[in-house]
Design goal:
By secondary structure, this protein is of the alpha/beta class. Helices cover about 35% and strands about 15% of the residues. The protein contains five helices and seven strands. The strands form two sheets. Strands 2-1-5-6-7 form a five-stranded parallel β-sheet, sandwiched between helices. Strand 6, helix 4 and strand 7 form a beta-alpha-beta unit. Helix 2 packs parallel to helix 5.
Length: about 140
């Protein structure tokens, strides 16, 4: 089984199993018209716990924001990335720098975002990768 996930059934299973999601690049209310605000909001509406990760904001949607993944307390099932494709590798490295017991099962890059080199590093470490897909669409489809 490939750890780069494209199969619809596997995507459905990932979304159904995601309870706590760290959202890299989530924005605050000043940019509430952006997908990096509305998609996490959709995920929350389907029952996911969302953790904003962005060093430029203090909070979003009433939730405390963290500057990086290492600062987020506890564990998370999935990392959802709202960054340009070329900005993804440092976030993949950030995931890999976490102790193995804190690493997420899935690294999900939003629609329009893909970085095959980062995906290769993550899958080599046993982390599933989803590229160029909207988590909000899948949450709406499979978490009802």
């Amino acid at each position: 089984m490939s750890l780069v996930v494209t199969d619809e059934d596997a995507l459905a299973a990932i979304v159904r199993g995601a309870k706590r999601v760290a959202v890299i690049g989530m924005v605050d209310e000043q940019r509430s018209d952006r997908p990096a605000y509305t998609i996490p909001e959709m995920c929350r509406e389907t029952g996911m716990e969302v953790v904003p990760v962005n060093p430029r904001i203090e909070s979003s949607q009433g939730l405390k924001a963290y500057p990086d993944l290492a600062s987020v307390p506890g564990t998370f099932d999935l990392v959802n990335v709202f960054r340009r494709s070329e900005d993804v590798p440092p976030h993949a490295d950030e995931v890999l720098a976490l102790p193995p017991e804190r690493r997420p099962k899935v690294f999900w890059m939003q629609s329009g975002i893909r970085n095959d080199a980062a995906a290769a590093k993550l899958t080599a470490a046993g982390i599933q990768v989803v590229q160029d897909r909207c988590l909000g669409v899948y949450a709406a489809r499979y978490r009802h």
